[in-house]
Design brief:
Elements lengths: L9 E5 L5 H11 L6 H10 L2 E7 L2 E11 L2 E9 L8 H15 L4 E7 L3 H9 L3 E12 L2 E11 L1
């Protein structure tokens, strides 16, 4: 007798206020210096594009972006460490970029820690190019860490 295996259902949907606790669990598990609950509530309040990645009814990731005056700024992309390196980050960023295009953005920008080699590789494979550096942009155990500023023509 063989067992029928059910593939997990991946869902990307807009973030709700009721999702913030689950988002904070993911954020805190992935980052030494996570965003706060207040930041996520502020992003929802001002109408930023806030999305959650749900697998089997559990939040495993999220993304936040703003789209203004033809520009998209991806502010946060995060996946729980247990779900990284499986292509889900690419799906989440692709979704954010699709929405940015629908909102008539022609360029997407983001910052990424210089030490986050996995994220840098992902963004470069998606066509993002380095356009600058923000010195001391991120908090770090040894003070501050630089961010690479990346851009993609949409």
């Amino acid at each position: 007798m063989s067992a029928l295996l059910k593939a997990p259902l991946l869902l990307l949907r807009p973030m709700r206020k009721s999702d913030v606790d689950g988002v904070m669990e993911v954020e805190s598990s992935a980052y030494a210096y996570p965003w706060t609950t207040g930041i996520f509530h502020d992003c929802l309040r001002v109408g930023y594009g806030c999305w959650v990645c749900i697998l089997d009814e559990r939040i495993i990731g999220h993304g936040v972006m703003s789209v203004v005056a033809g520009e998209c700024h991806i502010l946060n992309v995060c996946l729980h460490p247990d779900w990284q390196h499986r292509g889900l980050g690419r799906k989440l960023v692709d979704r954010l970029l699709d929405i940015a295009r629908q909102r008539h953005a022609d360029t997407a920008f983001l910052e990424v820690r210089e030490s986050n080699l996995g994220a840098l590789a992902l963004y470069r494979s998606m066509g993002f190019n380095e356009i600058g550096t923000r010195r001391g942009y991120y908090p770090a155990d040894s003070g501050r860490e630089n961010a690479q500023v990346l851009a993609l023509n949409l």
